[in-house]
Amino acid sequence: MKKLFCIALTGAVAASAQAAEFKLPAFETAKLANGLTVYMMERHDVPLVAVRAVVKAGAVNDGRQAGLANLTGDGVLLGSARHSKAQIDEAFDFRGAVLAAGGGVEQSTVAANFARKDTDTLLPLFAELVQQPSFEAAELDKLRARKVNGLKQAKESPRQVVGTYYRAMLFGNSAYANPATGTINSLAALKQDDVKAFHHAYFRPDNAALVVVGDFDPADMRKKVETLFGQWKAEGPAPQRADYGKVQADKARVWVVNKSDAIETTFMIGGAGIARNDPDYVPLQVLNTVLGGRFTSWLNDELRVNSGLTYGANSSFSTLSQSGTFSISSFTALPKTEAALDLALKTYDRLWSKGIDKATLDSAKAYVKGQFPPRFETSEQLASLLGDMYANDVGRAQIDNFMKDVDSVTPERAKQLVEKHFPRKNLQMVLVGKASEIGKIAAKYGEVSNLEITADGFTP
User: How many domains does the chain have?
Assistant: First the structure.
């Protein structure tokens, strides 16, 4: 057993009551003989256990079958080789437990939360779903149909799809441009064999991590994990991450996505961002809080409070394992489109024209520090964090040094970070609205491409 489950203690500092001393709670890391990475974190404050399987596979692996990873991720819950979907649903629902799964841009997850006393019943079912899902044909057909209908409905709400257009615009023909949800036509074409093949290729122990957080006895849990996951086999070499793409921003561009019945314009503006494990990830949370990361941000003040052009405006760094994007996003009444865009750009330029003074920074730093510990209070939250750390190659130092890194941001450092990470030239813009109206002003902001929201997919 010891040879198969070589444990490495990853830290022994508990979370402090004071935010300034917050540290990631102690956890163990291990790797089974089959290559499965295992994280275990004990928490005995409540008798609950959170389990999460994280697979390094997502839309970036879809190839020409857009939506395959997403359908596979959700399809894992449709039953196992030994138990039907109804049997598994009943087992979890009867005990008040939670079971969820899904596939995103770069990772697929299966997650469960249950009472400690139900571990022996539910953990084996969880293991079955991860390793031996049935993808039962009738259930898969119903799931695919729901996803197709959901995508049709999403295109009726620009705020639900503008981000997909934006990522497709920025990443061009690279894997990062693949729409995680797929397209109506690509989803309709997916078959059971496609889903089974994707699962076989990527859901394998040497491409996955198992995270267990909560109330358990470590020695007992190690035995359970070894018994339930130690026989999981992989064929051939493990899949390797390729270059998934870089943001293309050699010139200012505008995509006008026509929704002929729209009375609002939904927009995103920006460019290249950062990877999730970038050393500047934490300081940039502070600067983004000033610009558009909270209700009292510059963007929200100008576009909502002072001008009444919108009900809300924000900015964010959307991070991926290798790259990322930065965006300003909002929406406005159709006749006010140009005014809103110009004010958003003018407000954004304050990062360079005026900079961020100490008082503003201090306020943002206090806000960020106050928001940080509550994000990692529950076992479920901590399991999600450990899974993301695995999938994005993030070390625990980023969490343990969070408060120190926040405090280190000075006006001088802020200026350096703005110059380094916030895109200023060749901004990329997506406008979703009534093209006959907003098309008249689009050329003011860059080279224009026209799309129809009713068309399949998210590219011209």
Answer: 2
